[in-house]
Amino acid sequence: MSDRKNNNSFLTQTDKQTFYITESDGEFIAVEYDKEGKDTATFPLNSINYQSKQDLTKSKQSEEACVRKGKERLTLEDHSPNQPTQKASQTKPKSAKNLLVTGIGLGLLLALGINYLFSSIYSKESVVAASENEVIPQAKPKTVTVVEVTSSPIEKTLEASGTVYAYELIPVMTPATGLQITSILTDEGNFVDQGQVLAKLNDNTLQAELVQAQATVRQVEARLAELKAGARAEEIARAREQVIIARANLSQAESELDLVKKRVQRNRALKQEGAISLDRLDEILNQEKSSRANLDQGKARLEEAKQQLAQLQAGVRPEIISQAEAEVSQARGRVQYIQARIQDTIVTAPVSGIVARRNARLGEITSPSETLFSIIEDGKLELRLQVPETLIRAIQPEQKVRILNNNLQVPSIMGTVREVAPIIDGDSRQGTVKVDLPSPPGLKPGMFLRAKITTAQIQGKTLPTQALLPQADGTAIAFVVEENNRVQAKSVEIGSILPNNYVEVLSGLESGDRIVLKGAAYLKDGDLIKVSESVANSTS
In 153-174, which positions are buried (b, 16+ CB within 10 angstroms) versus exposed (e)? Predict the structure, then answer.
C-alpha cells in the first residue's frame, strides 16, 4: 500500500483498489478507482457512520457531482491514481487547515478500510448506481424461535421465615436421686429405640436394702401361715389338761376352806370358854382368809384354762389374721419400692427418636430436677414461621409450604401447615404458623429457614423469562409476531416469578400471542423475522 497527500487531499493505493480522499465545498469525499483508473464508487465521508445504505445512494445526481468534483480535484492536483508522486507525498501542510485535513483523512481512511473489508456498507451490492426508479434491496429477515402466551395454573404464595423446632422434645430424667452416674451408652445425634438403655447409675446400696426387705417379707408370711393353719391337736389336749388341773386345784382350795371354817367355829367356842388365847383365834381366822384367796385364785385359773381351750378349739380370730396379712403386704410393698428404685438406676429411652441433647456426665450425682437427655420423638421437626397479622388470614391448615435453604443437601423441600396459632404477639404484631417438616439430611433444630406458602391457585398468563427484555421502570418488553412476520414491541407488566424460569404476565399480552423467544435481544420494533421453531409453553 502507498499513500499520497497534497494540501486538502489524501491518496492511498492497494493491490486491487485506489482510494482518493479530498475536500469539495467543505465536504470530504472518497473516490474508489480500480486498476484501470476508473472510478467505481463515490462516498461522502461525513455520512459513513451515520447513514444507512439507502442514505449513501440518495440520488444518482449527487454521486455524479461528487465524482466530478473529485476528478476536477485530481486534474488540478495532476495526480494519477496509478502513478503516485513521491514529491507530493513529501509535501508538508502549509497551514492549520492542511494539518486538519491530513488527520481527518488518515482517520477516515482507517475506518474506510475496516468497513470495506468486514462490512457490506461499501460493497458494490450496497451502492445503487441505477436510475431513480431502481428499487433498494430489503434487509434479510432475522431467524428466531417463538412461544405462545398460554393460560396456566399459577400458585399464589406468601413468603415468610422462621426457626426449626422439634415437633415433640421429650426430656429424660430419673427419680433415683442421689446416685452416681456410672456409664453413658449414647450421645447427641444418635437415633435410639424406645426402651433402649441410655445410662446406668450406681445401685449397690439399693441392692442391700432389697435383700433386707425380702427377708422381712418371708418372716411375716410365715406368721400369717401359722395363724391361718390354726391350733394343733397337741395344743388342744394340753389346754384340756390345764382345765383339769385348774379344777383339781379349785376342789382342793374349797376343801381347805371348809376345814378352816370348821376350825374357826371350834376355836371361837374355845375362846368363849377361855380355853385358847385370842392370838390363837386370830391365827385361825387368818388361815380362813388365805383359804378363801386360794379358792378365788383356783376359780380364775380354771376359767382361764377353759377360755384357752375354747379358743384353741374355735381357731384364730379374723382380726388377728387381717393384721398379719397387712404386715405381709407392707413388707412386700417395701420390696417393690426398692426394686423400682433399682430399675430407675437404668435410664432408658421413653420413645424412639433422635438424641437432641445430652446433659449426663460420668461421675455426676443425680438430682430430681436434672434432665439427663432430650429426645426428638421419631425425629420429627417443625418450622415455626413468623407471619404479619395482616397476612396470616390467608394461611389455613393443610396448605403446602416450600422450604428454601441453600445450606441443605436438598435446597428445596415441601412441608404442610399443621397449625396457625390463635394468638398474635402484641409487640411484633406477628403470628406463628407451625409447619410439619420431613427429615432431610442436615435439617436440625435451631436452623433459620425461608418459606413460601401456597395461599391460592389461579389461572394466569405465563411466558418464559427469556422472552422478555427487562426495563428500568420495572416493566419488560416483548416482541409480538404479527401476521406479516414483522415484530411489534409491547410493554409488559410482569407478576410472580414461577418455577422453571417462567414468569406471570399481568398485562400487555393476551393468551395466544406469539412471542419471540430466542433472538429478542437483537430485534427492534418493525423488524422482519423468520420463525425457525415454535416452542411449547409449559410451566411444569
Answer: ebbebbebebebbbbeebebbb
Q: Which of 160, 158, 185 is closest to 172 using CA atoms?
A: 185
3-state secondary structure of 224: helix
Sequence-distant (6+) residues with CB within 8 A of 131 are: 60
Residues 474-488: tens digit of each pLDDT: 789 999 999 888 999
Are the C-beta atoms of residues 263 and 280 closer than 8 Å to each other?
no
125 or 140, greater pLDDT? 140
Return d(Cα 61, Cα 77) in angstroms, integer. Answer: 24
What is the average pLDDT across 159-175? 90
Question: Is it the case that residue 216 has pLDDT exceeding 70?
Answer: yes
Q: Are 379 and 354 in contact (CB under 8 A)?
A: yes
Where are the domains positioned within the chain? 2-118, 173-193+346-373, 231-315, 376-457, 458-535
Which CATH number is correct for 458-535, 1.10.10.10, 2.50.20.10, 2.40.420.20, 3.90.190.20?
Answer: 2.40.420.20
Q: What CA–CA distances, in Å, run from 160 to 84, 382, 394? A: 80, 14, 13
Was domain 231-315 assigned CATH 1.10.287? Answer: yes
What pLDDT is attached to residue 186? 92
Architecture of domain 376-457: Beta Barrel (2.40)
Give the number of C-alpha atoms closer than 13 A to the C-alpha of residue 224, restricted to the C-beta side.
18
The tens digit of pLDDT for each residue in 183-212 reads 999 998 899 999 999 999 999 999 999 999
| For residues 11-19, average pLDDT | 49
Which residues, in sequence order, are CB contacts of 466 under 8 Å at separation 6+? Answer: 501, 517, 518, 520
Residue 471 grid cell: 426495563
Q: Report yes or no: 320 and 338 within 8 Å, Cβ to Cβ.
A: no
- Would you call 12 helix, strand, or coil by DSSP? strand
Percent of the chain with pLDDT over 90: 25
Direct distance between the N- and C-terminal alpha carbons of the chain, in angstroms, rounded to an integer = 63
Number of Cβ atoms within 10 Å of the Cβ of 224:
19
